Amino acid sequence: MAERTLRGARLGGQSFEDERGIEFAARQQVGYACPQKHEFEITMSVEADVPAVWECPRCGAEALSTSGILKEEKVEKPVRTHWDMLLERRSEKELEDILKERLELLRGGEIGPAHLHRANAKKRHASA
């Protein structure tokens, strides 16, 4: 394996590519200032969407753009409760009918916890 390696080349060392004839993308300097009064600039592509907020490299605080770009306010959805989602699928009249039907089955011993079924079965056997 040693015979196949390039002599004098370091692993991950230097590139043998030449930068002549390469046109770099247009860049811009974007300034930011954090609440701790740290100011810094970030180099970005001219085509990039410049964020309104960037993490301060010194203190980690949220730094705002000095070029006047405003932070977008997130549109928050109103909180939907279980009841709201239920009403999207059924009317209150349907829900009342289902409740009456289920209560009848529960009181009749056809559904519900096992200990209720055993109690009803004992009553039926005692009365028979």
From TrEMBL:
GO MF annotation terms: bacterial-type RNA polymerase core enzyme binding; metal ion binding
Keywords: Metal-binding
Pfam families: RbpA
Single GO biological process annotation from the record: positive regulation of DNA-templated transcription
Protein name as it appears in the record: Unannotated protein
